[in-house]
Amino acid sequence: MKKTSVLSIAIALSMSASAQAAEELRLLTWGGYAPQNVIDLFEKETGIEVKVTNSNNEEMISKLRATRGSGFDLAQPSQDRVLGAQKDHKIYKPLDLSKIDRAQFIPSMLSATEGQSTLKGEVYAVPHVWGSSGLVVNRADAADIKDYTDLCNAAYEGKVSYRLKRPTLIGFAYAMGEDPFAAYSDEDKYQQIMDKVGQKLMDCKDNVKTYWSGGDALLNLMRSGETVAAMAWDAGGWKLNQENADITFVAPASGALGWIDTFVLPRKTKNEEAAYKWINFVMQPDIAAMITDSAGNFTASKGSDEYVDATLKSQYQASFSAADIDNIKWYPPVPAGLEKIEGKILDRVNAY
Amino acid sequence: MSTISRSRSPIKLGMWLLLAPLCLWLLLLIILPHLELLTYSLSAPDEGGFTFEFYGEFFGESLYWRTFLRTAVMSILATILTLLIGFPVAFFIAKMIKGRSKGILFAMCLIPFWVSELVRTFGWMILLRESGVISTALQWLGFIDSGVELLYTDATIMLGLVYSAMLFMVVPLVSTLDSLDDSYIEAGYDLGGNNWNILREIVIPHAMPGIVSGCIIVFMLSLGNYLTPVLLGGKDSLWFTEQIYTQFITRFNWEQGSAFGILLLILSSLIVWLGLKVTGQSFTKTMG
């Protein structure tokens, strides 16, 4: 263990050196959640420099796990990835809720996120941006795609795309009439559902042009017409809709999958104060609207709808009827062990 | 006595100082991480303690060893292809032309490597995709009616691998071929040899160290490549490095990823060793 101590001293030295230069906030977040105009405003108001690292759920957790929770002051994993990661790797620090201006949040979302991220009486996360994943469809070429399983229609051979990640498994499971979230607590049942979904995805492989991994890769596939339908995030669909009116986001018949990206403190955050300042700053309605414009998704900030661009609002209303919103399946926290089951299924589908 | 030891110690100190960067580099960046990898791969995450479970998983689940086999076979194929294409190129640069044009040709081999591998791979994607340059050109010329997808196949992966490894074959070959005295080749012709005899009896034996070291580098680069198979291979990209990445990053299964990493190291070293044995070469002779 001697090497660990040498390493941590070296890291600590390099960090204290950089901390002395200017007060800074090291933010681990998603692309679009910290646009430059918001960073500039924050810097003007507080004098704190914001260093942004764009990432995704798995990378965020892996990064924090590798450094045992240091290297960043504020992170934004999705709500379902807070508790499991905390139980397994202890990478987060409980929030001091008295330092957060709770009046700025939509109350129902705040209490839902807090409820799902409470461990031993301590709250670890508050909500920031929320959205859904479902289908992005080119209505000129594939108007009859209404649900995830329709992607496997023989008519669309080589013309669709999705990710080889857990949302695809969950989405297909719902479309096949199963309820995977209800089976979260029953490992055997979950394994059964996943085996079934894995078989379906293997049969469906001829339809897939390629499994997309980055958001931009997907946008290019849809934009160029190389694929006519894909499983993707709502914001991506609305972005394409601005360029080509035929393409838009469709809430699947079996229900869109809803996610909430949160604010959490890494266990060894160096600048907790700045992290709270950032949370309170970006939850102001007008600032939150700027983030909505950049990320394409709505936030948990109360009253920010008024400031949001009218196009985005109408796109949202076109994709989601009131019934569709009620039908959104929100991700519950992932219990330990399930991801191993999913991982093996995904490997098999990839190798098939 | 004391004067001698005093005059000696600065030399020793100097030598150690010069050695220090190498030793530190070896220790901190090569040995320690591999030891850590080994420890991870052998420890049970929940109970703690010692386990071979993760190595068993590799041999037990056909998916994983098949992926490794596929990666190894494709890398060997890529190495052979690179050698077949690279040898004439290197021979041409080293023997057929002289002076300035030699430098220019050599630089032309180098220029693609001034941009990163990622950019080069994206370049291939722009050329080969269904709405890309080649497909559009073929449609315009009337050879095909609708767009043709050239990406996402094993052939595309092979193309990318050969392209990105070519330089590492050409450089060692040019330098060994350069050192071959032209008079040997002339003597070969004088003694009545034809092109094939001379290639087999004079050129290839002389170039053997270059061929072997080029092949080792290209094989290792292909086997350890991540970007090219993932980006160009699409849904059929199944590369062992991708499995390692997935285990570490998306599955949080560091133990399994470490076991795969160690297996990649051992198995690829074994393949190189076998290759040297089969062709009757020795590692020290090649590197020396």
Secondary-structure blueprint of this entry?
The complex is a heterodimer of chains A (352) and B (288).
Chain A: H1 2-21, E1 24-29, H2 36-46, E2 49-54, H3 57-66, E3 74-75, H4 83-89, E4 92-93, H5 107-116, E5 118-119, E6 122-123, E7 126-138, E8 160-161, H6 166-175, H7 187-203, H8 215-223, E9 229-233, H9 234-243, E10 247-250, E11 257-263, E12 265-266, H10 272-282, H11 285-295, E13 298-299, H12 310-319, H13 322-326, E14 329-330, H14 338-351
Parallel strand pairs in A: 1-2, 1-3, 8-9, 11-14
Antiparallel strand pairs in A: 4-12, 5-6, 7-9, 7-10, 7-11, 7-13
Chain B: H1 2-42, H2 53-60, H3 62-96, H4 100-110, H5 117-128, H6 133-140, H7 154-178, H8 182-190, H9 195-223, H10 227-233, H11 240-250, H12 254-279, H13 283-287
Model description:
The complex is a heterodimer of chains A (352) and B (288). By secondary structure, chain A is α/β, with parallel strands linked by helices. Chain A has two domains: 2-130 and 259-326, D-Maltodextrin-Binding Protein, domain 2 (3-Layer(aba) Sandwich), CATH 3.40.190.10; 132-257 and 331-351, 3-Layer(aba) Sandwich (D-Maltodextrin-Binding Protein, domain 2), CATH 3.40.190. Helices cover 44% and strands 16% of the residues of chain A. Chain A has helices spanning 2-21, 36-46, 57-66, 83-89, 107-116, 166-175, 187-203, 215-223, 234-243, 272-282, 285-295, 310-319, 322-326, 338-351; strands spanning 24-29, 49-54, 74-75, 92-93, 118-119, 122-123, 126-138, 160-161, 229-233, 247-250, 257-263, 265-266, 298-299, 329-330. In chain A, strands 7, 8, 9, 10, 11, 13 and 14 form a seven-stranded mixed β-sheet that branches. A three-stranded parallel β-sheet of chain A has the order 2-1-3. A two-stranded antiparallel ribbon of chain A has the order 4-12. In chain A, helix 2 links the parallel strand 1 (24-29) and strand 2 (49-54). In chain A, helix 7 (187-203) runs parallel beside helix 14 and helix 8 (215-223) runs parallel beside helix 9. The longest helix of chain A has 20 residues, at 2-21. Chain A starts with a helix and ends with a helix. Residues 15-20 of chain A have low confidence and may be disordered. Chain B has 288 residues and is mainly α. Chain B has one domain (55-287): MetI-like (MetI-like fold, Orthogonal Bundle). Chain B contains 13 helices and no strands. Chain B has helices at 2-42, 53-60, 62-96, 100-110, 117-128, 133-140, 154-178, 182-190, 195-223, 227-233, 240-250, 254-279, 283-287. Mean pLDDT of chain B is 89; it is low at 1-5. The interface between A and B is medium-sized, with 27 and 25 residues. Chain A: Residues 1-21 form the signal peptide. Chain A: GO terms for molecular function: polyamine binding. Chain A: It comes from Marinomonas algarum.
